[in-house]
Specification:
With 107 residues, the chain is mainly alpha-helical. It has 1 helix and no strands. It has one helix at 8-106. The N and C termini lie far apart (156 Å). The relative contact order is 0.03.
């Protein structure tokens, strides 16, 4: 017959103590992971809000830029038209002066 190991209760007790320690560490790790998940969710929400604000600002900037570009284009067209009209007036003035000179030369 095999003699029972006298140290067996001590070994079992040590194993149980170690398992309890592991369980405690696992619970702490789980708490840390839950907290980290909460932090990640908060960070994700903050990033999404920031992205929404940045997108809105970009859209507003684009709108203002488009308005200013249209205004600039309109002003440029007005300047071109003013230059065309000035060129026509100058051509007429030059033609008038040339006619007067011809008239004076023929006299």
């Amino acid at each position: 017959m095999v003699e029972p190991n006298k140290d067996l209760p001590l070994v079992v007790a040590e194993i149980l103590i170690e398992m309890h320690g592991l369980n405690t560490r696992m619970e702490r790790l789980e708490d840390v992971m839950v907290q980290a998940a909460g932090n990640i969710q908060q960070l994700s929400k903050a990033v999404n809000r920031t992205a929404e604000v940045m997108l809105q600002q970009q859209q507003e900037f684009n709108h203002r830029f488009d308005q200013r570009q249209q205004e600039s284009d309109r002003r440029f067209e007005l300047l071109l038209e003013a230059d065309r009209q000035q060129a026509i007036r100058l051509e007429k003035a030059i033609a008038s002066i040339e006619k007067r000179l011809e008239h004076l030369e023929t006299k």
